[in-house]
Amino acid sequence: MAQVKHNHFLDTVDQVFNYAKELKILHLEAQGEKFNGRSIRIEGKDVFHFGTTGYLGLEQDERLKEGAKKAIDNFGTQFPLSKSYIAHPLYKNLEKMLYRIYGQPVVIAKNATLAHMAAIPVIARDNDAILLDHQVHWSVQDAAKRLKLRGVKVELVRHNRLDILEKKIQEISSTVDKIWYMADGVYSMYGDFSPVNKLLKLSKKYKQLHLYFDDVHGMSWFGENGRGYVFEQLQSLPNKVCIVGTLSKTFGANGSFIICGDKLIQQKIKNFGGPLTFSAQLDPASVGAAIASAKIHLSKEITKFQKELKDKIDYFNMLLEKYQLPLVEKNESPVFFIATGVPETGYQLTRLLLDGGFYVNMGLFPAVPSTNTGLRITISRHNQKEDILELTKALAKLYPNVMATTGNTMERLSKAFKQDFYFKEEKVEDVNFKVIQKHSIEEIDRKLWNESFLGEGILDWDGFHFIEKCFRHHQLKEHQWKFFYIQIFDCSGELLVLGAFTLSLWKDDLLTKSSISKQIELKRINDPYFLTSKVLSLGSLFSDGLPLYINKNSHKEQKAVNVLFQTLEDIASKNNASQIILRDFNLSSSYKNTFQLQGFIPVHMPEVCVIEEMKWSSLEEYVNTLSKKSKKHFEKDIAAYSHLVEIETIDEVNEEKLSHFYKLFKNVKNKNFGLNTFTYPKTVFEEMNKSKHWEFICIYIKNNSSETKRAIGVMFCYKNGQSTYVPSLIGLDYTYNEKYQTYRQLLFASIWRANKAGFQKVDFGISANFEKKKLGAKVIPKIAYVQSDTNFKMDYLETQQ
Predict the structure, then answer these.
(1) How far apart are CA 240 and CA 95, in angstroms?
(2) How does pLDDT run across 758-774, given as a tens digit for each residue?
(3) Per the database record, which ranges form the Aminotransferase class I/classII large domain (predicted)?
(4) Bridge partners, residue 246, by sequence
(5) In this structure, are 380 and 479 located in the same domain?
(6) Residues in CB range of 746: below 8 A, 6 or more apart
(7) What is the CATH number of the domain that holds 727?
(8) Burial code of 308-327, b = ≥16 C-beta within 10 A, e = fewer?
(9) Which is nearest to 23 in space by CA: 465, 593, 729, 712?
(10) Average model confidence (pLDDT) across the chain
C-alpha cells in the first residue's frame, strides 16, 4: 500500500503561515501603552490601522469603558460559577436589552465559537444533514464536522451557489429529516453578502430546509438598532432560522448570542448547550460593556454612527475606482479585498504599506486559494478621510511597481479571480526569453533530453515516448492525456528550462486517506467522474520523478522560472485545468520559497525508495549490506520461502499470459486506495509487451502439478538506459501471497535481476516503503507544490475526514 502522510493539509497551512511570519506579515505584536483605534504601534512606529473588525469603533467609546470598570468594581474580575447554576446579576439586564433589539429572547455565550459549539449539536439531530457554504466561518465548519461522529451527514456547497444547494437538497431529502444550510451573513474575507431572502424563499419551497447564519461581521453597522444584516433582511425571525450574533467586534464588548425562530430549540440550547453548561460565563466587565453598547444600539446615536461609517465606505469605494485598483467585491460592507493574486505580490505590498505607515491584513491560503491572495482592508469610524486618501494614494503608487517586480500582470490576476482587471494593463513581451512548446517527445532532441533524465525513473526519452503511446489517443477520457514539452531559451540560445508536463484527469482524493477514497468510490459506481479535475502536472500519473531541468548556472534562472510559471498558467487556463502540480521535489529543494511565493502550496507526496549501491556480486555479499534486523527479516520472510517458488524473467508473453498479468495487476490496484488513481487500461500492458524497454519478472509455485504453469505474481519492470532498473508495477494473486510471501519474493527478485543485468541503481518508486527499506532501499521523502484555482475540493475532502 502507498505510504502517504495524510496530515498534509495541516502541514501545508503551517508552512504557509511560518513563511508569512518570517516575512513579518503574520503574528505581529502591537506595542505601546495606549490604543486609540485610528493608529496602532507596530515595530516601534505608529501606523494607520486598516485591519480592525470594530467597524463602528465602539470599543473606544468611554461609555463602554466606564460600564466595564463599574462592573469590575461591583462584581470582580470574574464570576466563577457556571451560568447553569447562577448567572451574575448583570446578565438579566443585558438579556432584556437584547430582547428589545430583536423582539425575542436570546441565549448569551462567551464567544461565537462556543456559541456554535453549543447550538449546532442541539439543533441538528442524528438523522439530519448539514450543508455548509464553502466560505462559512471556520468556527461553524468545525462545530458541524464534529457531528459526523454521530452519523450526521455534513457536506460543503460552493459559495452562494443556490442552484447547487437546491440540487443537493433534492438529492438527499429522502434520506434525512431536516437539512440545515449554514452560512455567514457577511463574509469576512471579501465582504460579500449571503442571499438571505433567496434562501428564505428556498426554505419555503422545501419544508426540510432550515437556515443557520453566523452574522458576526454584519452586526451593529447594519440594520435598525444595529441588529445586523441577516435580521434586517428577514425583519422577523422565521421558525426555521437560527442566527448567531456577536457582542464583540463591532458591538464593542465581548461575547455572543444565539436567537432561534423555534423557541423550543432555543430553550434546549439554553438548557444544555455544552459550552453554556460547562464553560465559565462572561466576565462582569464584558457584560457591563455590552450593556453600555446595547444602550447606544437602542438610541438614535447608532443610526448616526452607521451613516458616518457608510460615508467613509462610499468614499473608499470611490477612491478605489478613481485610482483603478482591483477591488474583488464592490458593495456597502466595510470589508474590502484588493486582488494581488500570487502571494509574493501580496507579501511585498503588505510589507511596503506597513513600512509606509499603513497596516492592512493580507488574505492568504487557506482563507483564499493560493493564487487569490489580496489585501484585506477594513474601514472603521476611527479612520479619517485624509487617512483613507493617503492609503489609496500609497497603494496606487506601489501596486504597479510591485506587480512588475514580482512578475505579475493584470492578465494573470483576471484569470485567477475570473474577473476583468484589464483596465490598467500594459502588456510587454519579454524579448529576453524564447518559449518553445512541443506536444510530443519526438519533437525533442533525444540527446538533449537524456542529458538531464537518462537514468531517472521512467523519465528518459524512451520512457516518455512509451507513456505518449499509451495515453495520447485512448477512448476513455481519463486516459486521454495531452503532453507539453516546454523549452525556455535566453536571447543567446542558452537553454534555461526544459520540462515535461501532462494534462490529465485526476481523482481529487488521490492523496486522501484510504477510508475516504473507499467512500468516494462507492459514489463513482454510478458517477465515475465524481470529484475529478483536470490537472496540469509535471511528469505524469504513470511516472514518479522530476522531469524538470533548470539551468542554475545562469543569472537569469529566477526570471526564467517566472516565465515558466506564466507559461503553465496560460496552458492551464486554455485547457480549463483547475490545478497545476509540480511534483516529487526533495524537501530541501532550493525552489521551495520560489514556488510558495508564486502561489504553489506544499503538499506531502508518497515517499520513494531507491537502492543506489549495487556493489555486490553474490547473495552473501548482498545480505551483508543489510542491517542486523533486516538480515533476520530476509532469512525469515524471503530466504525461507525461496525453495517453494521459481522466478522467471520474460521479455514478451502471449495474449493469454498478458491477460492473466493484467488481472493480477488489477488485484493490487483494487486494494490500493492510498494513492487513488484511475486504473491503467490493458493497452498500457500491451505496449509493455511490445517494448524492448520493459520486461516481466514472474513468480510460480515450484513443482506445480498443473500442466500449464500459471504465475501467482508479476513485476512490471522498466529499463532506463543501462543505469537504472525500475520495478514500476506489481500484480499478485492474494490467494498465495501469505503462503509463499509472493510480494517479498518479487521485491528481492527485482533487486537480484537488476544486479545481474549490470544496472547501477534500482528505483522502486512508491508504495510499501517499509518492505523495501528492509531490503536495503533508501526512503526519500518527496513533496509536491500545488497551485489551485479554488480551495473547494480540498476543503470538501477535509469535511469527509
Answers:
(1) 22
(2) 999 999 977 657 788 89
(3) 46-386
(4) 256
(5) no
(6) 697, 699, 713, 714, 715, 727, 730
(7) 3.40.630.30
(8) ebeebbebbbebbeeeebbb
(9) 593
(10) 91
Instruction: Provide the CB-side half-sphere exposure for 165 (13 A, CA).
Output: 28
Per DSSP bridges, beta strands 548-550 and 579-585 are unpaired
DSSP bridge partners of 12: none
**Are residues 557 and 657 located together in one domain of the fold?**
no
Q: Is the same domain home to 129 and 271?
A: yes
Question: Are residue 106 and residue 245 in the same domain, yes or no?
Answer: yes
Q: Is residue 19 part of a domain?
A: no
CA 667, 669, 673, 679 torsion-angle sign = negative
Domain count, the chain: 4
As a three-state string, the secondary structure of 157-179 is: ECCCCHHHHHHHHHHHCCCCCCE
Query: Which helix or strand (DSSP H or E) is residue 780 part of?
Result: strand 778-788
DSSP 3-state of 588? coil
Q: What angle do the packed helices 682-690 and 461-471 form, to 10 degrees?
A: 140
Rg (CA), the chain: 31
pLDDT tens by residue, 440-452 = 999 999 999 999 9
Whether residue 20 is contained in a domain is answered as: no
The rounded percent of the chain whose pLDDT value lies above 90 is: 74
Report how far Cα 779 is from the mean position of its chain's Cα atoms: 26
Instruction: Classify 395 as helix, strand or coil.
Output: helix
Which H or E run includes 561?
Answer: helix 557-574
Whole-angstrom distance, CA of residue 420 vs CA of residue 415: 8
Place of cell 518553445: 436
CATH of the domain at 158: 3.40.640.10
Residue (of 213, 209, 223) closest to 251 by Cα position: 223
Cell numbers describing residue 788: 489551485
Q: How many CB atoms lie within 10 A of CB 671?
A: 12
CA pair distance 334, 324, nearest whole angstrom:
19
Q: Are residues 468 and 586 in the same domain?
A: yes
C-alpha cell at 200: 428564505
**Ramachandran region of residue 248, left (φ > 0), alpha (ψ -120 to 50) or beta?**
beta
Residues 454-482 have a mean pLDDT of: 93
N- to C-terminal Cα distance for the chain?
19
510: closest CA among 676, 375, 706? 676
C-alpha cell of residue 155: 457536506
Give residue 131's domain range: 62-297
Asked if residue 770 and residue 623 are part of one domain, the reply reads yes
- The domain that holds 41 is classified in CATH as 3.90.1150.10
CA distance linking residue 559 with residue 562, whole number of Å = 5
Give dist(CA 554, CA 546) in Å, integer. 20
- Sign of the CA dihedral with 472 first, then 474, 475, and 480 last: negative
Residue 598 shares a structural domain with residue 617: no
Pairwise CA distance, residues 521 & 525, whole Å: 7
With 0-12 / 13-18 / 19 or more C-beta atoms within 10 angstroms meaning exposed / middle / buried, residue 290 is buried
- What are the cell numbers at 277? 453548561
Q: Do 251 and 346 fall within a single domain? A: no
Whole-number Cα distances in Å, 181 to 136, 200, 205:
10, 11, 14
User: Quick check: 649 and 480 in contact, CB under 8 A?
Assistant: no
Residue 428 has pLDDT above 60, yes or no: no
**Spatial distance between the Cα atoms of 627 and 162, rounded to a whole number of angstroms:** 61
Phi, psi dihedral angles at 727 (to 5 degrees): -70, 95
In this prediction the pTM is 0.88
Classify residue 320 by its DSSP letter: H
The dihedral built from the CA positions of residue 456, 462, 468 and 470, taken in this order, carries a sign that is: negative
Rounded Cα gap, residues 663 and 40, in angstroms: 68
Whole-number pLDDT of residue 82: 77
Does residue 157 contact residue 132 with C-beta atoms inside 8 Å?
yes
Residue ending a domain, choose from 242, 265, 297: 297
